[in-house]
Design brief:
8-stranded mixed β-sheet, 7-stranded antiparallel β-sheet, 12 helices, 28% helix, alpha+beta, 2 domains
Length: 397
């Protein structure tokens, strides 16, 4: 397996960390997603294949300085063939798993030392980097095409990510991340706080994420949500916008353009935890009834900002409702479960950094519940005061 190679061969690991789309096919290393120019100076995409010589079961070395190429002959920015790569026709059958990689060429190029002498490459990292510079350099210059896609081509067992999760391995927290493997998370509401929560959850290795919001994405949403705004996103549903942003990042993601109410049992079937990120009291009350009735633990987030003269102040709230004590916590009245009769006259102040902070507190609480973060006092309600940057946690009924 590729990850086993990377764990025991520093040069392979460096290629992964650089962002190359690597895969192992038996005794070959495949590097996909490499841009190059054809004879008409049009952008094309190819792949390099190089032989692996196994020293033992897990350590490899180069056989020689040559590589195979899936693609036509690469050209320079002026349309001339790239020189000094020993371009020759070739054929190399690969396994069924690599049927998208059709070898057409072979290249032979040695590294040139500062004194002008040719030498063999020191390792796979130097070899692949050198060939990519020669082959992809013109396409990078002309089209700003990038060969570092971080795409996970070889399926990682039990991984929900479409990229290699190098963050987890670099931080040496693989065992802790595994604690989320069986979670199916619902995010109800993709306003300011819900959008940031979704962003954090996307990068958390939970098995599945189901998000729900029936509203459309307008300009004001761009000022209190993560990510880059594309003009064509405006007036689409939030479900369309966020699914297009995150679908290439992970598996197990669904975003549905609908509100959650008392009739949505099927939508939440199998959910192990939920986040409620809405501000309408009556809708929140229905969702509370549904989640409590289904025995699903959840966190409700809220923000109350007011203007006092020339300043804004207020509180952020994060409340945890366990499957065992949800009704007891609900009775304490932290969350608004009725509509404000003056709602249409109320200015709903939302600020992106506070939305993000509210989402941070909620996701940290969830990860504490899963044993990822330490927690000294298991609180069920946390109030964060903006004015003095203090928080108050409650952990006893």
């Amino acid at each position: 397996m590729l990850l086993q190679l990377a764990n025991h061969n520093e040069d392979i690991k460096r290629l992964l960390d650089k962002g190359f789309a690597l895969a192992q096919d038996g005794g070959f290393l495949i590097i996909r997603d490499l841009p190059y120019l054809d004879a008409q100076r049009q952008l094309q995409w190819g792949a390099i294949v190089t032989k692996l010589e196994f020293v033992d079961e897990i350590r490899v070395k180069q056989e020689n300085h040559q590589v195979f190429f899936a693609g036509s002959s690469p050209h320079d920015v002026d349309g001339s063939p790239i020189l000094n790569i020993g371009d020759s026709p070739a054929n190399l059958p690969l396994s069924e798993a690599s049927k998208d990689v059709v070898i057409q060429r072979s290249f032979s190029n040695k590294k040139k030392s500062p004194s002008g002498e040719f030498r063999e490459y020191a390792d796979f990292y130097e070899k692949i980097s050198s060939y990519v510079g020669l082959i992809s350099g013109p396409a990078m210059e002309l089209f700003n095409a990038i060969p570092y896609t971080f795409r996970s081509v070889e399926e990682v067992p039990h991984s929900v990510f479409k990229f290699h999760d190098t963050l987890t391995s670099r931080a040496e927290i693989t065992d802790l991340s595994a604690k989320f493997a069986n979670d199916v998370i619902a995010v109800i509401g993709l306003g300011g706080t819900g959008a940031y929560l979704l962003d954090f959850l996307i990068k958390t290795p939970v098995r599945e994420i189901r998000a729900f919001d029936h509203d459309k994405y307008h300009v004001h949403n761009a000022f209190r949500s993560p990510g880059r705004l594309e003009k064509n996103e405006l007036d689409q549903t939030k479900a369309q916008v966020y699914l297009s942003r995150y679908d290439n990042f992970r598996h197990g993601l669904s975003i549905t353009p609908k509100p959650i109410n008392a009739s949505c049992h099927i939508d939440l079937e199998g959910v192990t935890f939920a986040f409620i990120c809405i501000d309408k009291g009556s809708a929140r009350s229905e969702i509370f009834d549904l989640l409590i009735g289904m025995g699903i633990p959840f966190i409700d987030v809220g923000m109350g900002l007011i203007r006092l003269g020339h300043l804004l102040t207020g509180n952020l709230q994060t409340t945890y409702y366990s499957a065992e004590n949800a009704e007891q916590v609900r009775a304490l009245g932290y969350a608004q479960t009725a509509d404000d009769p003056n709602e249409e006259y109320k200015v709903n102040v939302q600020i992106s950094e506070l939305n993000a902070l509210n989402a941070c507190i909620a996701i940290i609480k969830f990860k504490q519940l899963r044993g990822f973060y330490a927690e000294q006092n298991p609180n069920y309600n946390l109030q964060f005061n903006i004015k003095n940057l203090k928080h108050i946690g409650e952990w006893e009924f």
